Each structure stands twice: as structure tokens, then as C-alpha cells.
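Practice set, problem 2.
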Amino acid sequence: MHVFVTGGTGLIGSAVVAELLAGGHTVLALARSDASAQAVKAAGAEPLRGALADLDVLRAGAAQADGVIHLAFDHAFGSPDTLAKAVAEEGGALATLGQELVGSNRPLVTASGTPRVPGRASTEADPLMTQGPVGGRARAVTAVLGLASRGVRSSAVRLPRTVHNQGAGGFAGLLTDIARRTGVSGYPGDGTQRWPAVHAFDAAVLFRLALEQAEAGTSWHAVADEGDQVRDIAAVIGRRLGLPVDSVPAETYGPLGEIFAGDQPSSSAHTRQALGWQPKHPSLLEDLENIQA
């Protein structure tokens, strides 16, 4: 397939582009800067200049593709207002991509997050939470899956709280950044809450499988580690950085504090059985050993 990818130069996106190319696909990747365009070319893909807010560019990219994978999201948020803006921007982009594909039976694979279910690990059958700081993302993904009834082979790859590579990425990466800045490797509450995780290279394989195989309207879990306790994550970060490890207020994490404090393990049993996905790369706790002081 000729695949249009948004977010193709990020930690996850660069792994997805490499996986698609290795699988025999060609890639057109959205690039919002000259540096991103050069990175896309260096990876062996074709850049399409534009940003997530450039809806005409998104339409053009989707129109010339056999399938679309959406990964872009503005993570440069530090307040509820900037987070809401990023969520709204992504929602507009997804609506545009989906509308362009209506009636074509082409695949549209979007990224989502694993849901939080009190008392147990979430599964692929659980609905997304449409309330809270990032509820708008869930509503946008739900709308994409609804396009299955309008001739779009839409699917969602639900990503865990940490998608990592070489110790960087996801919620664990944010803990590392905050630890460097504050001098304490912190965790909210008592740290017994569990976060699921996956290596970026393993997640990339699942995006390719969803593009190639997923039935319309389906959701899949890119979960390798069902749930590591956050205090164990913080302990590795503290040891690698030579910093003390301690509980800190949830407010330390800004608009994500409520999410950081929640217990949210997740399962991928159905995904592994149905799509034959099998994670092979290091676990989160193993990968965090790559953090450099």
C-alpha cells in the first residue's frame, strides 16, 4: 500500500514508518518543518509539508493514499487550555481524514489510549473514557470507529501509558524529565498504581498489522507490560540519575495529575490471539536502564 502517515517523525511514528517500509509499503509522511521533511527523506519516505491544522493538506495526503495511519498530536502542553487546544486540533484532523475516506473501504488506523477500568486490567472490549482532561480524544476516536458504517475500514490501536525506546517516551519519560528538573524521582500517591507499557518497535508492528488486517470498527491493545507499579518505575529512574525517590503531589504533573495518579493496567490477550502480535523488545523496566545520568 501507499500509506499516508501523520506524526511520522516522532518516537512512535519513526518506528511505524520504518516498519511499513520494511513490510513493502511506501510512505507519504506529514512534515511540519524542513527538519522533519529531511528526517522523512532520510528514512526512505516522501514528505508532505504541512501541520495537523492544515486540513487541506490532510485531505490531499489521504486522497492519494491506499490507507492512512494517524499518530500526530501536539504534546507541547503545560496547562488545561493548551491541552484542550491540542485535543481539539487532533479531533478536527481525524474528522477531515475520515471524511476523505468515506465510501472507499480504505483503512484508517488511529492512535488511542488504553482505557482505565476500576479493579482490573482493561481489555479491547472496554469503551474509552469520554470524560476528563483527554476525553475529547476518546470522542474523536469513537467517531472514527463509527465510520465503519460509511465505508471506512477504521480501527484504533490503543497505546499504553508509556511507549518507550532507549529509556525515553511516554509517562515514564515525563517522570524522567521532571526528575531531572526537580532533583527528585517522584511518583504520585503511594506509587502502587500500575501503568502498562510497550516498546515503540513492538507498537509499530501492531500499527502495520491493523493497517493490513483489522476489520472495520475494531480496537486493539499495544500492551506488552500489563502494568508496572509507578514507584518501581521511579526507583529505576532515581537510581540511573542518582536522585532520591519519593512521593510527590499529583499537582506536580499539571493537567495530567489525575491520570498519573490512577491505577490503569491493561491486557492485550485478544490482540495477540486475533492478529498474531507478539512483543519481542525489552520491557519498560529493562529499557529504563538506558537512561543516562
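Problem 2, part (b): a different protein.
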Amino acid sequence: MESEWDSLSALGAVTAVCLLLWATWGVGCTVYVYLLPPVRRGAPWLRAHGAWAVVTGATSGIGKAYAHELARRGLNVVLISRNLSKLEHEAKEIERLHGRVTRVIQADFTGGLEIYAAIRTGLRDLEIGVLVNNVGMLYENTLVRLLDREDVAKRLSDVINCNIMSVAQMTAIVLPQMVSRRKGIIINISSFTDKKPCPLLSAYAASKAFVRNFSQAVGAEYCSQGVIVQTVSPFMIESSLTKDVKYRTLLLSSEDFARQALDTLGLTSQTAGCFHQAVLNALLALLLPGWFRLSRWGPKCLLLLSNAMAKAKPAHKR
């Protein structure tokens, strides 16, 4: 009996030590990536990867913020989105505010392979140092079951083309020249939903799981050839996807987020973007663990949470 107790004590001690080491490692990595300014790479390091940055979904939210921040750090910027007037407006703003050269390419990423020939032509002969795959869309602007919407087939096709196809095809266009120059950075904007299946966001979460896995695999394949691939998985940032969130204090401005997220480049391949978002991600995982979200009660709780966080719709006035 005593030997059994000694064995259990030893097992408990080993488990405690492992948990302590795991917690210490997590805290250490968090401090290193988010809270130690001296380890951050500077703008010259970023510019050394190439003169141009390419940003998809560049006319609003995170994409717009990344485009401006990259220009502020000295890169010329190619903005790609579907609204030409917004593209031209943001290009002029970048040139006015940051004094950098810009190009615009109009493309609707819900389209199929046919849209990428024009993008490839528009990027030809540019020394692209940074690609930001930001463009993305929700299946619906609220939490819904898969069939609780008309035109299910079309909507699923749009989500797959916009969230998955765009990342794969833009990477295929830009990566060869990065490999030939043995330097380059690909930033894929994902979501906190990329780690576990998420009921009521099933198509969106699955598309972001692809982004995360694709990024990790491509990063492993080409890190020895000087290419950095980073996945950025924020919780909630001010954008068109979060315009109906009631508690605005939970949201970080897209400008602050882009600035802090770019500071993590070269320090980690997987990031929430900044300390604020890392804390929110950890709290969400603690309060709504994956096993619970996938239980029969999970979707009901997610709907209650969504309703609590959504702004009340104004009453219709006649």
C-alpha cells in the first residue's frame, strides 16, 4: 500500500511540475511576444523583405489598418478589394498621409479562379515583401444554424471562395518570388474560431481552421528559404463584422491592433495579435471550452451570449 502511495505521490509531483513548466512557458512567451519592446523588429527589418506590401480586403477594418500601418513603416502598398471608389480613396489617403506609392486592383473574392489572372498581372514585376491575406466574410452577420438562411449553396460558395480560396491563390501568386529572393512575409488573418469547431459559425470557423492549418504547413515548408508565414487570430476588432456588438469596450480599434500585431512579426508564427486579444481569447476558452460548445447546450448558450452582446435594434418609425 505504501509503495502504491509513493507511486501516486511521484506521479502527482511530476504532473505538478509539468503543469508549472507549461504555465511558465506560456507566461514567458506572452511576455516575450507582447510586452518586451526591445525584442521587436524595426521598420528597416520589415522593408528589407521587399519594397511592396499587398493587402486584400484593404478598404475597411483590419485590412485598411494594415495597409496604412505598412505604409507608415515605409512600404509601398497594393490595395485589393471589390469597391473601386473606396480603393482609390484609400490609395490617395495613404499617399497623402504616408508619402508612399500605391496601386489598386479591383477584385471580388467571392468569385472563382477567373479573378486571379488580373491580380497576377497587376502584381507582375513588383518586389513584394509582405502579403496580408485579410479579406473574409461571415456566412451571416449573426449566429445562425447552417440552414437558417436562403440561398445556402451560394452563401457557402461565397464563404469558401472568399475565406479559403483567396488565401491559397494569393499565396500561390506571391510565394514563388519570395522563395527566389529567399525573403518575404505572409500574414494570414484568421480568427479565434480557428482552433475548435464553432456551432452557429460553422462555415466561418471551418474556413478559418483551413487558414490556420494552411499557414502552419506552408510556413514549415518554406521557413528554411527565408519566408515567414504568420497566422493572426484575434477575438474582436472594430470592423464591419463587429458593428453590431453592444459592449464596445471589448473591441480594440483596428489601427491599434494592426500596429501591435505587426510588432509580433519575427517573434511568433501564431498570435492573437496583441496582449488585449490574447487575454480575451484565453478567457473565452476558459468560459466556453470546446467540449461545451459542441454539446447540446452549447449553441443555446452561444445564442444567449450573442443576443446579450448585440446592440438593440432601433424601433421602426413611421
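Answer key, part (b): The chain has one domain: 42-281. The CA atoms of residues 21 and 132 lie 34 Å apart.
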